[in-house]
Amino acid sequence: MSFRLRLALLFVATLVAVQVFTAALVYSVARRALIAEGERQLGVGAAAVARQLDDISTRVADNVQILSLDFALRTAIAQNDQDTVLSALRNHGRRIGAERMLLIGLDGVIRSDTTSAAKGASFPFPDLADAALDHPAAAVVAMGGKAYWMVVVPVYAPKAIALIAAGIPVDDALLARLQRLSALPNTLELVTDSGGGHWVGIAHGDGAAAIAPRLGNPGLPLQPTLVDADSREYVVLATRLKESERSAPVAAVLGYSLDDALRPYRTVAIAWASLVALGLFVGLVGALLIARGVARPIEKLAAAAHRIASGDYAAAATANKYDEVGQLASALAGMTFAIAEREERIRYQAEHDAVTALPNRQAAETTIQHTLASRPSAGALLMIGLARLPEIIQTMGHSISDRLMSDAATRLRPFAARGIVARATDTQFALWLDGAGKADAIGVAFRVLDVLGVPYQESDLTIDTEPAIGIALYPVHGDEASALLRRAEIALIAALGAEDPVAVYDTATDPHRPERLTLMTDLREALDRDQLRLHYQPKLRLADERIDGVEALVRWNHAQRGPVSPDTFIPLAERTGNIRRLTRWALATAIAQAHDWEARGHALRIAVNLSARDLDDSDLPMRIADLLSLHRVAPRNIVLELTESAVMGEPETAIQVLRRLADLGVDLAIDDFGVGQSSFAYLRRLPVREIKIDRFFTQKLGEDVGDRTVVRSIVELGHRLGYRVTAEGVETRAAFEFLREVGCDHAQGYYIAKALEPVTLEAMLARGGGMEHFGARA
Amino acid sequence: MHFGHAVAAALFAVAASAPAIEVDVIVRDSGGNPAGDAVISVRGTTGTGTGTPSVAQTHVIDQRNETFVPYVEVFRPGDSVVFRNSDRTRHHVYSFAPAKSFEFVIPPGNSSPPVVLDRDGEIAVGCNIHDRMITHLYVSDAPWVAKSDAQGHATFADLPAGHYQMRAWHPQLRPGKQQPDRAVDVGDGTTTVTFELPLLPDPRPDAGDREHTRY
What we know:
The complex is a heterodimer of chains A (778) and B (215). Chain A has 778 residues and is an alpha+beta fold.
């Protein structure tokens, strides 16, 4: 309930309470005054009734007295003429309105009776008869449930010879007349004691209610008394009437009706009550109107506030009022606008990259996820990386890189027409293409490359950004935006390292697939349980076609998965830091094998591959020395093979480790030579004794003239620089013949043998181990 | 008008064998006031003194100023009464008394014929024209009869000693209140007998009781 409503209700309630209290007070005062007035009127009325009844009594007595003087009557009485007397009494009784006329002897015996045959009986009111000789005697008596004036006068002839008694009814009509003539109070009744103080009415005036039955135990109310009769209130007062001592007592009861007296006030009370009701109604309606006028807009404002809280900034409730509510509404509207603006800004900042004004990764992910929610048939996510950006930041600082990224964003923005362009990381942009399939995505990727391929220019500066793009396709590479982003990034990483600047995500090469993690766990377990095996691929010395060396290759037959390709787990081991343990195991196994073979007369140099991560391990030379001495293996029987890229990674550390290894007497070989970025100039600084020509050049050596030239040159140059030269991947006789022709030192490949278990290799060596053994195969 | 008793005393002054003794009678009403016009009649129980029979007389009851005069008149049986109208109005004299009833309309200045009252008894006489006019004719055969004076005194001066029955009557005696006869022994000296009678108000207009003027 609102404050104003409560206030209004308080006022109304106070008004009503005051009015009711005043009304009650006035009623009480008026009632008391009326009672007092009633008592006064009753006092006067009672006296008046007594006086008037006396007057009537006197008049009646006079009349009877006059009758009694009628000479004929007297004659008849004196002569005891019964019939005449009776008829005369009847006649005279009618004249004066008497119901009953009696002739009574001076001895008190009734001699004639006009109504009943009471003749001969004693007159019931001898006191009246006695008094009548002194003066006319009259009294109100109760006879047969009626009230009578009983008037007794003597008959003089000329002295008293008899008495005449006249019974004149004091009936309702008489009382009513009495009331009318004398303005007596409302109710006039005659009551008589019916015995035991029980008063019964015997005549009623005009009054509506019979009071007599209400007179209770106190009996006759000789003092003004309040009496309830027929649910009306009366003030009553009784006065005893002149009575015969032989008759039951008779009294006049006067009633003053409070209700009648209050009647004139009733219209006032009704008017009053109407006024109060009207005031109440007007007050309530007013209060309700005010409350509604206040509450409605406030409810609207509250609803608007709820909407605002839930993020709906649509126009808040408008109030066209200039009161407090209106001010509140406009304040609320202003607040809403400010909040919306601020929230918009915060959201923009949260969702956008400050430099490029493109959506950031989170926003992009959310938007893409939102798009994916509708299950489109296809879609592609392009992760665009600028390969040179870290370098640019390092050389020229962030401000220029920011400008460069901003410029790149501007170039990319048109592609947003196909979907979404966002800045994924410092160096990457993400481009989502709605509905794009693989071919479409690749096409777009090349257009992006075209756009970004134009070097960035700023004053006299021209920067080539070397963009690359990784592509993840929906739904084949993931049905979640986050997965697509991750995989596109993986593809980008692949693309950054490859010649082809566009790479589509390949599940097989993804080093980040979750199963890779379990694979590494399994690998460690396999190392602990010695579940890995080394196979040895023979290296044929071309000069005498003897196998004088082998390359140790790791083979893993996974308990559940079966054989796991080294191409799968070795890069993973490199990434996850497990490669060192693998290398140690391979060195230990290979050196142990070298000891075994040496002991059994097999002169085989065993080559073991080192990873780039192994070159960070400064303990490695010490560990190899320990192994060699442990197995009493000559260092010259062990060859350590390194890829060009491994050496290129951390040149100084790597060179130090390599020097220490070379100092041990172990030979070092450069693996996969020819495809990397190494140069002879660089190699010259390394203690390398052997180079292995990458299979890229040897596989088509039979027919490709270019490859032949390259191989011939490498062999010639390598020899000139003092390196032994080995060709890998020799698979054809033509290649084999060419290599022998150009004077390559060793050949390795399926043409000679695949990697073999030690037992198989030993068997092969036992059969001669020369080229003749392979003749059939070639 | 109260001189009647002297006449009566003279009438009844009979010679007795015994020496006469005076008997004084005092009559009062209930209030102790002297009651005049009371008639005391005395009879001897011993048979001595029977009074002296006398010749019949005629008593005149005058009517003056609408009043019978006298108010009470004592008669002996056989006496007559004549009503004389001394007023200028007519009077309608009547009696319904058992002892003698009559009715005369007497023009002014005239008199009624004599009416012989041959029986003892009380005869109330009224005028039908003037309600307030009343007189009482008391016919008694008692040897001694006296009427009280205004002071309520009646004196029997010459009663011989002996035993008597004494009766008091008054026109206003309340009906039903007739006093029983009083036994009186008359011996030496003066004997005083007092009667106290319950009386009704005097009906006569000039009797001084204004309450009754309206009758």
